[in-house]
Amino acid sequence: MSAITPAKDVLRTVTRHGSSRPLCTLAISLVAVFTMYGCASTYRIAPAQSSALVMVPANQAGIHDRRPEFRNIFCAVLHARTSDEGLTDDCDQRLLRLADEAPLSTGPVSLDVSTQAITVMFIPGFASDCVDESKQAKTQFKDHLARFGYHFERLRVSGISSSESNAQAIRDAILADPDLGTTRKTVIVGHSKGVVDTLVALANYPELQSRVNAVISVAGAVGGSHLADIAPDVALSIARNTPGVQCKDGDGEALQSLRPQERQAWLASHTLPETIRFYSIVTLPQPDRVSAGLKPGYNLLSDIDPRNDGILLFYDQIIPGSTLLGYVNADHWAVATNFGSSSYALVRAVADKTDFPRQALIEAALRFVEQDLDHPPDD
Questions:
Q1: Secondary structure element (H or E) that encloses residue 29, with its range
Q2: Which helix (H) or strand (E) covers residue 194, if one does?
Q3: Is the pTM here over 0.85, yes or no?
Q4: Taking the mean position of all CA atoms in its chain, how far away is CA 319?
Q5: Nearest alpha carbon to residue 365 among 70, 165, 141, 168
């Protein structure tokens, strides 16, 4: 019990006194919560709360496994971008090669400026708007992708709202731009719960299906997170009420949308549109690549399966019927955020493993999708 008391003290101190550094207070508060629950118990799934599921190899589950082709593109992009900066990076350390991956698909990779008019719409995840990350997103992705002809937009959804609520925000944003799906192709890149919000939007609003060409899931919470079943009221209260943190108004049902029972039931009763291409990138960090702030969640989920990213199990991240691009050696934060470069020491302490080439990853995924959209889908 001794490990629990300091966590409570941290939580009490942060929420009582606040800080002029909102990201810092939010990060420390969330670490405190999951440390409390991670030390207090182990996690077990109640059979009555489960759906009838079966685990089979990807190629037997309607998944199009194209990892070798994506590896060829990602390694080329990573080599080029790190060379531009006078650095080196080991592609095989960044993109894991699982035992069943086919041999590398070699061939020339064009790194020219995109010849297609593509708008990339980024949909962030849980509590994403509680701290304004717009400048970070611009630095990370927008400026980088603009160099290669991709137009990047970050849609600010409510980080504490249900997927149904955010689905309407996604619909409104897409329909508000008459160029999307007409003079410009639309590729949605979703992270974490942002993927769930996107899938719900496409199912609830058929008018979007002619406006969206592809969806790329990056550590998508497709099957939900078992951590959403742990102290949800406390976690959501922190996200909403930590001093200095301002979450966009919403219905407060974000964690309900992330519960595995909810997500599995939704997947069982909905079919994704065949006119849209879906792609999945899975985060599967080696233990030494998990940030300190995600370690409590990582340890809890390891009671179920050690193959997790601190928030999600690796098999819960794949969109049914999608094209599997690869498994990256990054935790749930590192693949999409740059908290590790924060000017605040406490933020860097909890997000200490976020040095991942996420810009190169997204660029490579877009180049893959751009080529794929030029060809008819496989029968």
A1: helix 22-40
A2: helix 193-204
A3: yes
A4: 12
A5: 70
Distance CA 248, CA 245 (A): 10
Give, in order, the Cα–Cα distances in Å from 104 to each of 162, 196, 201, 279, 357.
40, 31, 36, 19, 21
> How far from 356 is each of 79, 141, 220, 334, CA to CA, in Å?
14, 13, 17, 6
- Structure tokens, 287: 């233990």
Query: Contact, 357 vs 89, CB < 8 A?
Result: yes
Express each pLDDT in 117-168 by its tens digit.
999 999 998 877 765 554 555 567 999 999 999 999 999 898 889 999 999 9
How many domains is the chain partitioned into structurally?
1
Count of beta carbons in the 10 Å neighbourhood of residue 87: 9
Quick check: 353 and 290 in contact, CB under 8 A?
yes
Check: CB of residue 325 under 8 Å from CB of residue 279: yes
322, 279 in Cβ contact below 8 A?
A: yes
> In sequence order, what are the beta bridge partners of 218?
191, 281
Residues spanned by the domain of 97: 61-227+252-373
Helix (H, G, I), strand (E, B) or coil at 310: coil
In a domain, 200, yes or no: yes
